[in-house]
Every structure is written in C-alpha cells, then in structure tokens.
Design a protein that fits this description.
The protein is mainly α. Helices cover 26% and strands 0% of the residues.
C-alpha cells in the first residue's frame, strides 16, 4: 500500500539509478552473511584470512530528487570519504 501511494515502483521495469530519467524502484530480496573475527584472533587461531576490513561508510543526505533517485555527487563524496578513512584514494574521475 505504501509504495502505491508514493508512486515508487518503476513503470518501465528499468529503474535507472542515478539517472535523470529514473522512474522508480524495483523490489528484490537477498541475504548475505559474514563471519568476522578480529585480525589478531584470526591470526592466533590459524584461520585463513580472505580479507581485512580497514573501514566502512555510507551516505544518505536526503537532498536528492527522491530516495529512489539518489544524488550521484553526494553518493560519490560518501564513497571517497569512506576510502580516505581507510587511507585509500579513488581511481576514478569525479563527475561534477
């Protein structure tokens, strides 16, 4: 009922995130699970280490056209900030 009132569903079935032509969202389901240990615990326990998380981040400034078409510039800034927090830099050209 909520989505029917907000006109959130894509009429074309091609929601085109970050596009000026975005016309809504599509529903989907999924699940993912990770078993995490502190690095020193994994090392002392002899675990195989597939990756090390150095940081995380996200962005949602609420200033886009809608929640279904987020502002690409602000999302990119959030991504860059997350990488900086990990001591990394982006390898792409900024879109302004």
């Amino acid at each position: 009922m909520c989505f029917s009132k907000t006109q959130a569903m894509s009429l074309t079935g091609d929601c085109r995130p970050f596009s000026d032509n975005a016309d809504g969202t599509m529903l989907g389901e999924g699940i993912g699970m990770f078993a995490l240990r502190r690095l020193e615990d994994a090392e002392s326990g002899g675990d195989h280490i597939y990756a090390v998380l150095r940081g995380l981040g996200g962005s949602s400034d609420g200033r886009a056209k809608s929640i279904y078409a987020p502002a690409i510039r602000r999302s990119g800034q959030g991504f860059e900030e997350s990488l900086r927090n990990c001591g990394l830099r982006t390898g792409y050209r900024r879109i302004d």
